[in-house]
Amino acid sequence: MLQSSLPRRSFALTALFAALSAVGCVASPVEEFAPGDEETNEASSDLTFISDYEAYFDPPATTTFSQSYKLVGAITPPSWSWGKIELLEGRQKFRTEGYNLRTAKGRWQDTFQDSTYPLRTYFGALNQQLVDGFNIQYQNTCAGAVGSTSAAACPDKGPTRPEARFVLLHHGPKTALDQCDKTKAPVLLVHGAMQNANVWLRPSGDDGTGKLYPGMTQASGFVQALEAEGFCTYATTFGNFHGDNFNQAIHIANALSRIRSLTGRPKVNLVAWSKGVVAADLYMSSPATWTDWGPKYFEQLAALQSLGVPNFRKDVRTYVALSGPHLGIDLNFRHPFNPLLIYSTAENAPLGQGPVTWSYMSAVQCVTWGYADSPNDIFPNPYAYSVCENRGGTWLDYWRRIYTSNITGLDTTGKPLAPKSLKTLNTEQGASSTGYSFDKYNLAMWGSVDDKGKLVSAYLGQMQVTYDLRSYYPLPNRQDDPISYDWSTLDTDETKWRDWIAIKTNYNPANIFGGAGWIMDDAGHTTCRATAYDPATACRAKHLYYDSLTAESYSLGYAQYKLMDGIGIKAVAEMGGNLIDRLRARGLSTSLDYLYVLHGTSGGTSGQVFEIDGMACPTCDPKGDGVLFDVSIAARDQLTQGWTSTNKTNKSKQEGVPYGHLEVGVTPAVWTKMITQFKALP
Asked: What's the pLDDT score for residue 307?
């Protein structure tokens, strides 16, 4: 997990016009066409959605499913890293994991590297260890090696895209050497989204000689702190860091069983961070016993998934729920800049590896200008590496759409509607058919229906934790502020997204004294921000240029365009099985020895405050830990439903710490609190 601040970009008008000159952009005549002057390609490729539930599960590892696991093998990393990495194979029923170019495991050669972000230097070897661990199963030369960039691309089932039944179990350096106290309950660490086990060992990276990522100071992690206190320490790495929470709950149960076998202890201390708490919550609430699943398609699919999760085995001593979304998350729905960032950054970049919440957006939103809209240009634009490449640079393609899902909604039974293939949607809008790949464009949280009619999402786990938090934290109306105060100095989403589009939409190469168009947003700037929540939201723009493929109307010299669209948060939550509603309605097992809800209370370090929308006023403190809102992370009451008041008092506590979401798991002061709790129980 990298915690450096992201580079900022000025959106001042003078800078924009300077950029135009720098890239050799010239004024182009205004091309105005009346509706009907151009032909529209209405070619359709109707898809039939596969409704067979079994199609969404991997076949059994052996002849039948069982509540057991197999130790496939192990590797021994270099001495500066983990002591041992084991590969466990679950024998339970797993839902097939989806991947795309952003969620596949990165080999050394795949790890992003440039002068600004030298990630390969400091994290590449750590990434390679993960691929090598999964390759115990596949034995494929595509896994590559540190120092070599010659390995071929890996297959869809392989070390960079492991099948759902596999998980890595990392042993701390001292733990692997049996230099830990087996009279103490061991510790299992579970990572969150966009993380892996290495965040617990080398949060600042390591180039193999002890050098840390530039600007970072935390040389060691929670693993070393635990081992210094004598705790046998282990950690998991899931195949997909945005993966299915039911699958990950099974893996937690299997990892706990393996650790108990290794140490001889009946119970394990469990620490889960961020998204990792959802899988831990699932395991400790025994979802196979739930009977309140709804009748819609994806709730019934979730009901089948729940049967694969073992009932809680009373094998957790202290459960530390570390800043996790117990009540879900709506971060990417809330902030338009997040999807925009994902659209326009490289697949292996240090940012932009999350899901988007739009089915499509107009190319005008890509962070480009003029003809330098590709990394292959003479003046390459570092903000156009991915699906924005070669789009949005000029008026000619401002209004072409970039689709990241072909799903237009759900039918009355809850099945997705996908009238055209993802490829057809994009090639109709000018994308190259030879340069197209499903993995490149399939970025929406809810995924797409592929050419075989199967729903594929690389973000199953994120879809399952989707929850609309606007009833707790409404989208702020920027006009409610004191007139002398400008929210944009605080709200980076506003400056990075809306201000940029407003300036670009208004720029007129034919007449610098007259604007070309404007955003049809409300005065408080909530309309466009709510588009991801509600696809009916009227986030549109007017512009002089007419594109017959996408214009909704044309009058008085201006065409009207919808800037982006999606299926809405309610449909996404339904596709996730409405899991948060299920979790919200029940607590953890009363057989849990102790619950410690530990969460951040600070907005985080500079450049990391995302949930500004939780603030009641421009000068108020953020109502969250920088990424997740308080109502979701401070969930002791929710997790102790069904507990007696005595048990709640004696067997649980909740505590906030003055750190942000991206800091709580890598901060020594927070480690000390957890270690103190582990020592407190008899």
From this structure: 97
